[in-house]
Design brief:
The protein has nine helices and 15 strands. The chain is of the alpha+beta class. About 45% of the residues are buried. Helix 2 packs across helix 3. The protein is globular and about 65 Å long. The protein has two domains: about 170 residues, Gcn5-related N-acetyltransferase (GNAT) (Aminopeptidase); about 160 residues, Gcn5-related N-acetyltransferase (GNAT) (Aminopeptidase). The longest helix has 19 residues.
Length: about 350
């Protein structure tokens, strides 16, 4: 049973960017060149400052967040979006490509470099500029930059709130499409109730390597392994746990990192964070293969829901690949699909 961390949204993606290792082996500055591409009166450019009309982007994204997580999420995003974008634009591992219409920006893409993996983390075209294939040209530029820099893989899993046509572009560029869903459930859902005495235990820093081993083992033969680069080995999984506990993907509490034991060792793990006001998000749920189909995954989800309830949250959310058998478990616990969030992945041959 698996979820994905990248679809929490831009507000947390930019927090994550701020903490990236500045000693990465690659730098965008080694591959960025001046762009010379026009689309009518629009000009493709890299940007390093917040556009003067960025409020239009904020308004459109906030409206989408209100539908996804509720009005408080939209209000929080409005308050934080400009500052977070400023932080991202000041990071040498972030590439921001935009179509300009004079001093204004019509479309914006943010790409992030982590180790040897490129991530397209944000893509939005203002509604009045839709239908001009701006998203296709932005994607092409980001992919070309990553590939020229020698990345091992490129992953795109953006939560978009405008009607973008990206399938043909990614497929033409050799990407694999993975259909995914963002699901959520109310925390008063009867199927998510749990005894007050929890079986799972909080995992503190000393025990994180054991938790990382559980996560990496769970993904060793999983069909979604190509998408989930952050758990491709125990070292990467350990960094995921550290980032989660540090609040890089969203506000975190120690009790959001939990495990279930059998015979004195961890056999399942769950990582959580706060996605929006009142919304807890399951970043990762992993069960060792030999312990699946024993109710451990559902136990962890119910107990994570109880932890979120104790924090005063009223909803829980997660992401899942559409054809993942774990989806049936989530639906049995009261989770409903809220949004399609397709992912695209390319690995260097």
């Amino acid at each position: 049973m698996f979820t994905c961390l990248r679809i929490v949204h831009l507000v947390h993606t930019v927090h994550y960017v701020h903490w990236l290792d500045y000693q990465s082996r690659l730098r965008f500055s080694t591959t960025i060149t001046n762009l010379d591409y026009d689309c009518g009166m629009l000009h493709l450019r890299r940007i390093k400052e917040v556009p003067p009309n960025y409020g239009e982007f904020v308004d459109e994204v906030a409206a989408g967040l209100a539908g996804l997580y509720g009005p408080p999420a939209a209000e929080e995003y409005r308050c934080e979006a400009v500052r977070l974008l400023q932080t991202a634009l000041g990071n040498p591992l972030v590439d921001a490509v935009a179509f300009r219409d004079g001093s204004r920006v019509a479309a914006l893409l943010l790409a992030v470099l982590r180790d040897s993996i490129g991530q397209i983390s944000f893509l939005h075209v203002l509604r009045r500029y839709l239908g001009r294939s701006l998203e296709a040209r932005l994607i092409e530029e980001a992919v070309a930059t990553f590939q020229a820099g020698g990345v091992e893989a490129i992953v795109s899993e953006c939560v978009t709130f405008s009607s973008l046509n990206v399938d043909d572009t990614y497929q033409r560029l050799g990407f694999e499409k993975i259909e995914r869903l963002l699901m959520s459930a109310p925390l008063n859902e009867p199927s998510l109730q749990s005894p007050s005495e929890l079986e799972s235990v909080v995992y503190t820093q000393r025990a994180w390597p054991a938790l990382a081993d559980v996560i990496a083992e769970a993904y060793r033969e999983h069909p979604d392994r190509r998408l989930h680069f952050e758990v491709r080995n125990p070292e990467a999984a350990l960094q995921l746990v550290r980032n989660c506990a540090a609040g890089i993907y969203g506000a975190a509490e120690p009790e959001f990192v939990r495990a279930v034991h059998r015979d004195g060792r961890p056999v399942a793990a769950i990582l959580g964070c706060r996605a929006a006001p009142g919304v807890g998000f399951v970043l990762q749920l992993a069960v060792r293969p030999e312990f699946r189909r024993q109710g451990i995954g559902s136990l962890l989800l119910r107990e994570s829901a109880e932890v979120f309830r104790r924090r005063g949250y009223d909803r829980i959310a997660l992401g899942v690949t559409r054809n993942n058998p774990a989806r049936r478990l989530y639906e049995s616990l009261g989770f409903d699909p809220k949004k399609t969030v397709d992912a695209y992945v390319w690995w260097r041959p």
